[in-house]
Amino acid sequence: MSDPRAAVAAVVDPEIRVVTIDELGILRAVEEDPASGRVTVTITPTYTGCPAMDVIRADIRRALAAAGHGDAEVRTVYSPAWSTDWISEGGRAKLAAAGIVPPAPVPAAGVVPLTLAVRCPHCGSPETEQVSRFGSTACKALWRCRSCSDPFDHLKAL
Ligand SMILES: [Zn+2]
Question: For residue 119, how far is its CA from the centre of ligand 1 (angstroms)?
Fold first, then answer.
């Protein structure tokens, strides 16, 4: 049997296949009961109603079974709510390389948020516009660059 944490951390996000659920900050905890060997995984969904969560739960069970941990439970916790701040530095770099713009960190309470331009991941131009609230998946919005006219996905910030 291999380390259950390592097996679960390697599960990739089914919608954004370049990053793992660990890098996205979805994975909260992996606990193994020393007596029974039962593994309990705790995850927090990125967005309410994100259909990918069912796929993620199934992928986690499959990864644990492949690592020799057939007895596993996946718990979903909604508090504290996932925020884009939980995306790791490595995850942000991979998203940027894939043309997905990671949202800016959510400002602290009491700070009036400025509407920042979303930069084009292809040419870096801030001359971009949102084309559709829903991009290739329910969790991403589709944007288009006015400079190079390339479309790109932008993760919705909470
Ligand atoms: Zn561009």
Answer: 8
Domain residues of the chain, as ranges? 4-84, 99-155
Q: What is the Å distance from ligand 1's center to 59 Cα?
A: 35
Is the domain defined by 4-84 classed in CATH 2.40.10.120? no
| Cβ contact 133:81 at 8 Å | no
The mean per-residue pLDDT over the stretch 120-138 comes to 77
Q: How confident is the model at residue 71 (pLDDT cuts 50, 70, 90)?
A: very high
Which residues line ion ligand 1, judged by CB < 5 Å? 120, 122-123, 125, 145, 147-148
